[in-house]
Amino acid sequence: xxFTFVSALATATLALAQSSTELRIxxxxxxNVTRGxxxxxxxPPPAPSQPATDTKRFTADLPISEARSRHxxxxxxxxxRFGTRVRAPQAVLAPPxxxxxxxxxxxxxxxxYYGYLAPAFNGFGEYxxxxxxxNGSLEVSxxxxxxxxxxxxxxxxxxxxxxxxxxxxxxxFSSKGGDLGLGSFNYAYLGGTSQTPPKSPPVSADNSFSxxxxxxxxYESAIWGFDPETMAITVQWINSDRSAPATHLVYxxxxxSALLLTGxxxxxxxxxxxxxxxxxxxxxxxxxxxxxx
Length: 293
Description:
Elements: H1 2-23, H2 54-59, E1 99-108, E2 113-117, E3 130-131, E4 139-144, E5 150-152, E6 154-156, E7 166-171, E8 187-193, H3 208-213, E9 219-220, E10 224-226, E11 232-235, E12 248-252, E13 258-262, H4 265-272, E14 280-284, E15 290-292
Antiparallel strand pairs: 1-2, 1-4, 1-14, 1-15, 2-3, 4-6, 5-10, 7-8, 7-9, 8-13, 10-11, 11-14, 12-13
């Protein structure tokens, strides 16, 4: 009888352990989801970008395009017999010039120096592979205005794929939604994206994670801040209601090799049963890296 009771107890304990293992969630899907990915070289080139409207160009701090006549073949009328009426020119205030800064990205925590972000994705189309030396590491181009060096984009100049050249935030596979904040374990990857407008919440479109895994995830690209005095790089996620939660970077320093964004580090660590450290990013300029446009 004792043997039967002990056996039953052992069986129940094993079943509970297996159940706990099965219920444990992961930051990434099973690697099998990438089996159908043919490789970046096998994919068609990206579609040519469409000319931006003046509204979009103004939002992105780009120069307004020259005006074009709606009727280019229409002849101009003869001058008025009392002379040609001339309007006073309207003053156009040009925005201050932008500064372009080239950076290699150094990753560190309060206790460890990890190294430089490599120009490579991990197995799911996410940035987070790190190399020890600056030479050959990922290089990004940052265009910012000294008066407002935030809500800017990072353009990878030697990234792993040309189709998604911006380093943006991609909503996490196991997240309950696209919003970050205190009390939520939601997270986002850093991956290759296209452009999204500044202050924009996540948009639905292809990105490096969705292409490699065939799992659609939203993203946003204008998430970065840069301090030209300290060379510190910060990140700011925008929620669906356009609020800006405090955003932290953590490094999945296990076999995931991923840089992640979250609004609550402790809740994230507890939910996924991990001790991923919070990290800081620093811009380390290559030689002759800062030039004015």
